[in-house]
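Class, discuss our next protein.
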Amino acid sequence: MSDEIQTTAEAVEATALMPRCHEVHKDGSRGTVFRDAPGSIIDKPVHQKSPAQWAYERLILYIQNFEKMLDNEQEVAMGFVGSDAGILKIDGMGYFDPDIITFYGSDPAGGKTQLVQHVSQLSVILRSLPKPEAQAEPERIGFRLAAELDKE
């Protein structure tokens, strides 16, 4: 909170420009994707970011959040809607202002599945795949991507 005095219009505009994330799952839980966002994502106002940068940063948060749901035998993978990406059984849905919709679920084999989609039709499916047996620990790309944001 700052000591800066704002007009009512400025306060309303600032609130409208703040990123909001809302998710509800069938088990009643609520999403936490934005709660632990690095300062590099939060510090720069959304209106100063390009749509590509803002979508990129949010996809990193979604990947990190998805990886938290995986066990040590799974890693994140990405499929594309309209290709041979498979079926998504929706277990939850949410939005991330200003332009991302997300669907949570599982594929027919029981793998956790999440679809993050820009409202203008950009579609990405994050999927869990077994980690290679020869690999001791699963790789977590989301945390690496977020670390890169902090370096910029």
